[in-house]
Structures are given as structure tokens and as C-alpha cells.
């Protein structure tokens, strides 16, 4: 969906009129409301506009003509289809079916043109009435329900209730469909049927009990069998009748008050936040004033609706076509959780269903369908013969905490150790597994943990070569001070070559280095270890470090063969853990973030414990899973309860999260087979700069041709890698991470990327492209959602490149 701001201006009230059904009087209501606002001109300056985005039937019978006839104000239809049928049927005969994005963009442009401009301090006010076709879920031209079609704009809704028999149910159902999609219902209106069904009476009570204003409107004159002249006279009398005034005054006042309250609320949020909120990962001394706090009103698809600061809006007073909000691309995928786009109606419906069916049920010694289904989906998707049991927790940190408990218990039992032993973990430098105490202790001292008073750093973390693109070439590069251990850098033409184990493993022997380190630690220093824990492929919070996959694979193989206790033999069962339990933390890299269900598959090896979160619920709710083998599970079997894994949370395996997880995984599995992802994959089958062949266009995707791919284009990442400000970058799956040059030193404490981050978000008012991103020291990263389109990402790539150029040229 195109990047479009929410249409909120200080001097324009824009409302969208939905009907609970077709034939409920939407156009009559719109005309009543418009006529009333025109009458208010005596006391204030009001302008009026009616917009019908999509209309079907003969043009001379269109609703815009009716509105214009009785109000005298301009009315416009954006897309008119000649057949009087549902838009998705009528559009079939059109020369070209307009896309959903085109319809929404055209509607916003029309509203923007109408936003009143008045030199007298914006005293002129406007009312824009946007009337939909049919009911709330009636399909638009593409077939998408209208409530989804217009959701990117999230305009305040006036819902016209159904006054007919069965209309109560229709109206309530329509309201719930809107609420589930995140709309604010400004008001519900219903025509008084003179006591026949008493729908308006019931609906007014029903909605007011739910804090939604409801209004009753005078009954529409019966014009059955009348001629055009009589009908015209009767309706002019109806629209001008004083008897209609009181109800319409109350409704109009309510709309004006709601508009003012919304603006006031938005203006106050940042100040109230600065007084009451303690932000995560934030040094509050860096927040000099409330305006430094971003205010998000809503989000949809790939974009946040972000409020302009008051300072910015004041500077735009003479350019009133700028709305209060601007769309900002969610460049961090909302802390790596966002998978299926914000405001996804499938996930919202799944949440509503599970909430209605279960609410919350405790999970100790019990079960429910969403939990067992999700466990089975995870086990099937991981394709790991070792993994058999799924333990649910709340988030990535607690999932890692559980994994460490599992692994240490298993190793302590096998090696006959007790809790008093000083047992650590093996891992990689720069790794990080979460913010709980146990998970922090499994990482080396860093900015996240070294000032935590209970942190002890229980382990040893190995250095490793990294993968990066520099000046258009993929390179495997050793750490600066470890070339004697890993040799010289190696260049590769593609990521497929980097992951070619058959060719690379015989040439790059990491086994000797790892074995020497273990000998020094275990045999010479007498240190004890209970697990190997690492993030497959990419270390996220540590700075988006792309580990040489040959090294990670070698590390697993060496640890499994190594004798950590000479008196203990490894088990004969090929699926039981050996050496040490291997824990893969896939919280960041798993579940299609890198283009595959499991990032372990890139290493062609299987862990004994696997951790999953973030994308598990598509970014909607916290839920995590720690998946383990039978040989890990058996370590907790015993005669006493104290032998069990005594870990859990009140919301363990909560049914809402599990059901959303099932919905999310199913959607991502469908994306994995989709034409959209095939487009990304095919683009990565070609070498950069080569023209597409006929085979590129017609041949189905062959996973053996290009196993490694990215949603970010080869052209863009190659050009960015040559930029004078860029040291190197990585791109795989939905992840793009760019390391900027910093002569004072890289790492988390670097400030090299902050200027670019701020410029991407705040500066490009003229370009109308804003990117909300996060930085890790000198690394700025962008992450697509699984549903991002090539067109969207191309726009983001272009804006990123232009902003790099602007900063570079400004520094010269």
C-alpha cells in the first residue's frame, strides 16, 4: 500500500460514512449533514465537500449529483463504473481496474486539495464527507472489503445503522468489523422508523453503553410512486426542516468537539509521556524536550502514522496542505517482531476469535487446541529430527533463560555435577540473548549488561570471521587482531558461494583453532561448560554481525565430538546431545526473517534446543517457544517435583497468542510459496548488472539455483556498498545492515549512524519519504516485513541512498 498520511488537518474535519448495509440511507444522511453545516455559515466560516471514492451505476444517477443538487456544494466521484452492481463485479468491464493503492492515494489527494487555506489565521473550517459504497465489508473494485481498502487512512467513521427488520444485528456486526480493524467510530446514526421496528431506540442505548455516541435522525419521506418534481420539492423541504435541526446540531457539535479533542490529545501526549514513562534502551538525558519523543497515532502495513512536532507544524502554517501526520516506514520491523504488516485484519480476527473462545486459561497439566497445533507446526517447520518437545514462555529473553536451564541441567546430570559447580557456557563474541539475569550471564560483558549489578558473565566467547559486502564484493574477513588464527580475507561472487560448504570446508579448517581453544579452557584451565549457545548466521543486538557459516558449523561439530569429561561416553542415539547441548537462539534470525523457516538450515546442522519468538505472532502479541530434544527433556524426569523444570509464567501458552501464532505461520508459509517472494528470489539469481533473460521471466523458481536471497535489491546494496560513508554492509532475507565508517572506532558507543537515522526520519519533508530506523553504534539497519513489496522497498532504498549522498556532500 502506498505511503499516505492519515488525513487529519487542523482546519478540516474529514469523516468517512459507512453503511451497516446497502440501502440504509447513507447519501440521505450525508446530504442532511452537509446541509446542516452550510446553515452554520452565519456564525462561522465552513466549506463543504462530498467525495464518493467508488460508485456504480449510470453517471446521471450517481450520489454525487444528488448531494450537489440539494446542498449546492461541490461533489465528486473518483471512480465511476456503469453497471449497478457490486464494485468488484462492475470493475471487470473497466478498461483498467484501479489498484487499492491508487484509490486511496487519489482520495487523499482530493482531501488535500480541499483542505481550506485562509490567510486569517486558519479561521476557515472545512467538512469533507467521504461516502463508501454498500456496506462495511462490501468489496471494492479489487475485491478487498472496503473496511480494509480504506484502512490506511483510518478516518473517523460515521456508521449509518440499518433501520429495517434485522438491522440491529447488521449494525452491531458492522461496528465490530470496524473496531476490529482499528477504526474510531465517531458516531452511529439511525433513521427513526416511526416505531415500526424501534431499531434506532435499541441501537442508541447499545452504543452509548459502549461509549460510542448514537443519534436518531428524522424519518425519510415516503416518495414511492411520486414524480420527479414532487420528489424534489419534498426532499428540499426535508433537508431544510427546522425539526431536523436539534439532532443534527448535537451530531455536528459532537464531530467538532471530537476533532478538537483529538488534536488536543495528540498535542499533549509527548508532554505527558515525558512526565510518566521510563523508556527502554534510552538514555533520558538525550531527551532534551518532549518534542524529541515520537508520537505514533496508528500503523498500517509497513508504515507508522507519526505526528509532526508542534514546531514543525507551526513552520508549515502557510502550507496547510500538510496534515498533522506523516507516514514513516517501519525500518526496524518494530524491534524485529513485525512480519505481516501492521493492522493485519487476519491477525486481528484471529486474536478476537481466541479471546472470545478462551480468554485466558492456565497451562500447567492442561492443554488446548491452539497450543498443541502451534507446537506441531513448529516441530514440522524446523525439520529437525532431534527436536520433540515445545516449552512456551513469554518473550525471547525468557525463552533463552529456559533454554539455558534446560541445557545446564542436562549436562550437569550427564557429567555428575551439582549446583555448586562453576559452570559456564560457550558462545560467540558480540552475542546477546536477552535482558533477564540468566540470559545476560550467557553473554560477554557489553554495554547491555556490564553495569547490571548482578551480572557475572558465566562463560567463554570465541572470536570469529565475519561476512560482509565491501565495494560490491562479498568478503569473509577475520577479526583485525586474529589473522594468524583465521588467515587472510576471502572474496566471493555471491552469498551462495559463501554458504557452499562442500567447496569451502576443505579449504578453511576452523576445527584446529576451536579445538585448541577448548583444550586450553578445559584441559589446562579446568573450566567447566554446560552448553554452547549462539545465534545462527547473524548476531542481532551485538551489531548485526554476519558470522562465517563455515565457522559456526565447525563450532557445532567440534563441540559435539569434544570430550568434556574423559570418563563419560557420548550416547549412541544419533538424535541425543553429545559433548554439550547445542542451543540455537533464533529469536531474531528464525521464522523467515532470513528467508527460511529456520536459520539453522543455513548451517545444515541441527541444534538440541531451539529458541523462537518475535515473528512467531507476526508482531501482535508476546509469545515464545523453547523447543528441545528428548535427551534434554529426559534430564528433568524424576520421582520428585523438584526434579521437574519449575519455570513458567502466568501467560504461558496463552491461547490468544498461540492462535495468532498459527495464523501467522500459515500466512508466512503461503508467502514462502508466493509470486512476490519468487520475484525477490529471481532477482538474486542474476548477477548484478546483467540483463534479465527470457528464462528469468518464465522459469519457475528453483531453490537449488539461488538458495540465499534478500528482499533488498542487489543493485541497491551494491551501490550502497561503494558509498564513501559506508565501510561495509550485509543483506539477507528481510535484513539490511549498513556499517558506516567511524575513524574514532566502531561499536555500540559509536555515534556515526545517529545523524543518518535522524535525517531519514525528520528531514525529507520535501521528498515525502520518511524512514523510522534504529542504530547499533555505527550500524544502521533496515528490516522489511514479510509482506513488503518490491515497489515499497525500492522507494526506501532510493531515499536511503539520497540521504547518504546529502550527508556526504554536506560534509565536504
Automatic annotation (TrEMBL):
UniProt-listed PROSITE patterns: AA_TRANSFER_CLASS_3
Keyword Cytoplasm set for record: no
InterPro entries noted in UniProt: Aminotrans_3, Aminotrans_3_PPA_site, P-loop_NTPase, PyrdxlP-dep_Trfase, PyrdxlP-dep_Trfase_major, PyrdxlP-dep_Trfase_small
Transferase found in the keyword field: yes
Origin superkingdom: Eukaryota
Gene Ontology biological process terms in this record: biotin biosynthetic process
GO CC term, one of those recorded: mitochondrion
Keywords for this protein: Aminotransferase, Pyridoxal phosphate, Transferase
Protein name: PLP-dependent transferase
UniProt source species: Periconia macrospinosa
Amino acid at each position: 500500500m502506498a505511503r499516505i498520511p492519515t488525513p487529519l488537518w487542523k482546519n478540516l474535519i474529514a469523516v468517512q460514512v459507512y453503511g451497516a448495509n446497502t440501502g440504509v440511507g447513507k447519501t440521505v444522511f450525508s446530504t442532511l449533514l452537509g446541509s446542516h453545516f452550510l446553515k452554520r455559515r452565519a456564525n462561522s466560516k465552513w466549506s463543504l465537500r462530498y467525495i464518493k471514492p467508488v460508485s456504480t451505476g449510470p453517471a446521471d444517477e450517481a450520489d454525487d449529483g444528488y448531494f450537489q443538487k440539494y446542498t449546492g456544494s461541490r461533489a465528486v466521484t473518483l471512480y465511476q463504473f456503469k453497471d449497478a452492481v457490486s464494485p468488484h463485479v462492475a470493475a471487470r468491464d473497466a478498461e483498467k481496474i484501479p489498484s487499492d493503492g491508487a484509490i486511496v492515494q487519489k482520495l487523499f489527494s482530493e482531501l488535500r486539495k480541499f483542505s481550506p487555506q485562509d490567510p486569517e489565521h486558519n479561521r476557515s473550517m472545512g467538512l469533507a464527507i467521504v461516502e463508501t459504497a454498500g456496506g462495511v465489508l462490501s468489496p471494492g473494485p479489487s475485491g478487498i472489503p472496503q473496511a480494509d481498502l480504506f484502512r490506511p487512512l483510518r478516518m473517523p467513521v460515521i456508521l449509518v445503522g440499518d433501520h429495517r427488520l434485522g438491522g440491529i444485528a447488521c449494525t452491531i456486526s458492522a461496528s465490530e468489523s470496524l473496531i476490529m480493524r482499528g477504526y474510531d467510530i465517531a458516531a452511529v446514526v439511525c433513521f427513526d422508523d416511526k416505531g415500526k421496528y424501534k431499531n434506532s431506540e435499541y441501537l442508541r442505548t447499545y452504543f452509548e453503553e459502549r461509549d460510542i455516541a448514537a443519534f436518531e435522525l428524522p424519518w425519510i419521506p415516503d416518495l414511492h410512486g411520486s414524480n420527479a418534481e414532487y420528489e424534489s420539492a419534498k426532499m428540499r423541504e426535508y433537508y431544510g426542516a427546522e425539526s431536523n435541526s436539534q439532532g443534527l446540531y448535537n451530531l455536528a457539535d459532537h464531530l467538532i468537539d471530537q476533532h478538537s479533542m483529538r488534536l488536543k490529545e495528540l498535542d499533549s501526549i509527548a508532554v505527558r509521556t515525558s512526565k510518566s514513562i521510563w523508556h527502554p534502551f534510552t538514555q533520558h538525558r538525550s531527551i532534551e524536550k518532549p518534542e524529541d519523543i515520537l508520537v505514533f497515532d496508528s500503523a498500517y502495513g509497513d508504515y507508522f502514522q507519526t505526528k509532526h512536532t508542534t514546531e514543525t507544524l507551526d513552520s508549515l502554517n502557510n502550507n496547510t496542505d500538510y496534515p498533522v501526520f506523516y507516514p514513516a516506514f517501519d525500518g526496524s520491523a518494530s524491534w524485529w517482531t513485525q512480519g505481516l504488516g501492521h493492522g493485519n485484519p487476519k491477525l486481528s480476527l484471529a486474536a478476537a476469535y481466541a479471546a472470545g473462545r478462551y480468554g485466558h486459561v492456565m497451562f500447567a497439566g492442561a492443554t488446548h487446541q491452539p497450543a498443541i497445533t502451534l507446537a506441531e507446526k513448529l516441530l514440522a517447520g524446523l525439520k529437525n529430527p532431534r527436536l520433540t518437545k515445545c516449552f512456551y514462555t513469554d518473550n525471547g529473553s525468557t525463552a533463552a533463560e529456559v533454554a539455558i536451564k534446560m541445557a545446564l541441567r542436562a549436562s550437569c546430570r550427564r557429567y555428575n555435577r551439582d549446583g555448586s559447580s562453576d559452570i559456564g557456557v560457550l558462545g560467540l563474541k558480540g552475542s546477546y540473548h536477552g535482558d533477564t539475569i540468566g540470559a545476560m550471564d550467557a553473554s560477554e560483558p557489553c554495554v547491555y549488561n556490564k553495569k547490571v549489578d548482578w551480572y557475572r558473565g558465566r562463560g567463554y566467547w570465541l572470536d570469529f570471521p565475519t561476512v560482509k559486502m565491501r565495494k560490491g564484493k562479498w568478503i569473509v574477513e577475520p577479526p583485525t587482531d586474529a589473522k594468524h588464527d583465521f588467515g587472510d580475507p576471502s572474496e566471493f561472487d555471491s552469498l551462495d558461494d559463501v554458504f557452499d560448504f562442500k567447496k569451502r570446508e576443505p579449504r578453511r579448517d576452523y576445527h584446529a583453532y576451536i579445538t585448541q581453544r577448548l583444550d586450553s579452557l578445559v584441559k589446562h584451565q579446568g573450566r567447566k561448560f554446560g552448553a554452547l549457545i549462539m545465534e545462527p548466521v547473524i548476531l542481532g543486538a551485538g551489531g548485526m554481525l554476519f558470522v562465517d557459516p563455515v565457522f559456526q558449523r565447525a563450532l557445532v561439530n567440534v563441540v559435539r565430538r569434544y570430550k568434556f569429561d574423559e570418563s563419560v561416553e557420548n550416547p549412541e542415539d544419533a538424535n541425543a546431545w553429545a559433548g554439550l547441548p547445542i542451543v540455537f537462539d533464533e529469536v531474531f534470525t528464525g521464522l523467515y526473517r532470513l528467508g527460511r523457516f529456520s536459520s539453522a538450515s543455513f548451517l545444515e546442522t541441527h541444534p538440541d534446543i531451539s529458541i523462537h519468538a518475535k515473528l512467531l505472532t507476526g508482531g501482535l502479541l508476546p509469545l515464545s517457544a523453547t523447543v528441545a530434544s528428548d535427551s534434554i527433556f529426559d534430564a528433568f524426569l524424576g520421582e520428585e517435583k523438584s526434579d521437574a523444570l519449575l519455570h513458567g509464567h502466568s501467560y504461558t501458552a496463552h491461547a490468544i497468542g498461540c492462535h495468532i501464532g498459527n495464523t501467522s505461520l500459515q500466512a508466512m508459509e503461503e508467502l514462502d510459496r508466493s509470486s512476490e517472494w519468487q520475484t525477490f528470489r529471481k532477482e538474486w539469481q542474476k548477477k548484478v548488472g546483467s540483463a534479465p533473460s527470457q528464462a528469468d521471466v518464465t522459469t519457475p523458481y528453483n531453490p537449488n539455483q539461488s538458495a540465499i536471497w534478500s528482499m533488498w535489491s542487489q543493485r541497491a546494496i551494491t551501490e550502497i556498498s561503494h558509498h564513501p560513508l559506508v565501510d561495509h554492509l550485509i543483506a539477507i532475507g528481510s535484513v539490511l545492515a549498513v556499517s558506516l565508517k567511524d575513524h574514532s572506532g566502531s561499536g555500540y558507543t559509536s555515534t556515526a549512524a545517529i545523524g543518518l537515522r535522524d535525517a531519514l526520519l525528520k528531514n525529507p519533508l520535501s521528498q515525502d519519504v520518511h524512514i523510522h530506523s534504529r542504530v547499533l553504534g555505527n550500524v544502521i539497519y533496515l528490516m522489511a516485513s514479510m509482506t513488503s513489496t518490491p515497489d515499497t522497498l525500492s522507494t526506501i532504498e532510493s531515499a536511503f541512498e539520497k540521504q547518504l549522498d546529502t550527508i556526504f556532500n554536506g560534509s565536504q
